[in-house]
Amino acid sequence: MDLKKVERVYSSYAGVYDHVFGPFFNESRESAVRRLNVRPGERVLEVGVGTGWALPLYPDHCQVVAIDFSEGMLEQARKRMAAHGLRNVELLRMDAGHMEFEDNSFDTVMAAYVVTAVPDHRKVVTEMIRVCKPGGRIIMLNHFSNGNKLIAAVEKVISPLCKHLGFRTDLSLKMVLEGTTLQVARKERVNPLKFWHLVECVNQKNAASSSALARSN
């Protein structure tokens, strides 16, 4: 997958996304946001906000910055913001692999259906770690490859087809977390089919590792 292709695919989905894909994705997204227990004054980054389905669920007492690379998706999110009169949300078009935020900018980073829908998941995860404060939370809602060998084999076979739709199926949580400073604090399956994993990680980096990450980018 390349970034321009991903942007074209998701922009083409934007107008029908909630109707076609909403029943499969949005229930779990809502569940993830509702379980955040965001504290007053907390600064939250939502990576890959899509049509902004979950934005009205964030409490008024926090500040939310939401990014997406698809202008089509952002246009739908802007309409949702206006419809709900959201004043604590800022929408930005941005590449999740090269974020324009300073180090340690956010208390919580939420990424729903993102790491399997980007050309380079390592860059995105590294950036999420960089912009998240030490001790902060990084939450990923995603399908991760199953440990079952038969299911994993099927996922690997269909992965090239899924890439044309804008995502991959053969990425495991171990691959995502390997070599990072993230420690899994909670992991559970969500939605009626239990197909998605909600993974909450604690960002165990320190100030030195944050500076090293910034230099490496």
From the structure above, extract its key features.
39% helix, 7 strands, 217 residues, alpha/beta
Please, could you describe this protein's structure?
With 217 residues, the protein is an alpha/beta fold. Helices cover 39% and strands 24% of the residues. It contains eight helices and seven strands; from the N terminus they run H-H-H-E-E-H-E-E-H-E-H-H-E-E-H. The protein has helices spanning 3-13, 17-20, 22-34, 71-84, 121-131, 149-165, 173-177, 207-216, and strands at residues 43-47, 63-68, 89-93, 106-112, 132-142, 182-190, 196-203. The protein has a seven-stranded mixed sheet with strand order 3-2-1-4-5-7-6. Helix 5 (121-131) links the parallel strand 4 and strand 5 (132-142). Helix 5 crosses helix 8 (207-216). It is globular and about 40 Å long. It starts with a helix and ends with a helix. Residues 157-166 have low confidence and may be disordered.
Span from first to last CA? 21 Å
Tell me the number of strands.
Answer: 7
Biggest sheet descriptor: 7 strands, mixed
* Rg computed from alpha carbons, rounded to a whole number of angstroms: 16 Å
H/E element sequence: HHHEEHEEHEHHEEH
Rounded mean pLDDT score: 80
Helix content: 25-40%
**Strand composition percent:** 15-25%
Helix count from the secondary structure assignment: 8
Q: Are there runs of 5+ residues with pLDDT below 50, and where? A: 157-166
Order of strands across the main sheet = 3-2-1-4-5-7-6
Described by the principal axes of the CA atoms, the overall outline is globular
Which structural class best describes the helix and strand composition?
alpha/beta
